[in-house]
């Protein structure tokens, strides 16, 4: 049975920040949902492009080599592999991520925020 | 320069139904935006899983072997490869698609709705 995912309902059940949950999988890619609040570490992914899409809230993405991009509801950004970036959420923001299965959230950086995503 | 995509703005510029536009690319996958209205053909994709996410509106997905799934704003469905499906939009619906680069929208069916997506 193929079942739909309601992003709002799934977000409602997420209580911890920076802990992406896998909401879908296709073609070796994961769709993840996550709540962010605070600053992440500047990092990059060697092999994976990463997509941030804001569902609700406001997310700043800082870069080393270009001005900060601010995403709000219904906006997304694809960050190519190798590009260092630092997500910052002044207030809680709900985000959908799209990235290959196996991507580690802190990329090249060994940090306490590293985790394995929880599946359904 | 890495630039964000505002889905609402991009949708505003789409005038034709069933003509997905590529809004992003990552890891060999396309993010496409499309407006749908009317009935598509029942079809399947041999090699690709496909994701439908409704931005605004209401989309029915009919199947051969299970009840129809109705998606509304902020809901998505992953359709595994090989599963026949038929999208139906009674009124205009705005949809985001995730699928591998190279996917043909009508899958196994030779139909007048086949097209090559327009890039930026």
The multimeric state of the shown protein is homodimer
Give the distance, in angstroms, between the N- and C-terminal Cα atoms of chain A. 15 Å
Name of the CATH class of chain A: Mainly Beta
User: Biggest interface, and residues per chain?
Assistant: A-B, 35 and 34 residues
Given as residue ranges, the uncertain stretches of chain A (5+ residues, pLDDT < 50) are none
What is the total number of structural domains of chain A?
Answer: 1
**Biggest sheet layout of chain A:** 7 strands, antiparallel
The H/E string of chain A reads EHEEEEEEE
CATH superfamily of chain A: Jelly Rolls
Report on this structure.
The structure is a homodimer of 120-residue chains. The first copy, chain A, is built from one helix and eight strands. The first copy, chain A, has one helix at residues 7-12; strands spanning 5-6, 21-26, 29-39, 50-56, 58-63, 69-72, 75-79, 85-100. Chain A is globular and about 45 Å long. The mean pLDDT of chain A is 90. The A-B interface holds A 1-8, 23-27, 29, 31, 48-51, 55, 63, 66, 69, 71, 74-80, 83, 98-100 and B 1-8, 24-27, 29, 31, 48-51, 55, 63, 66, 69, 71, 74-80, 83, 98-100.
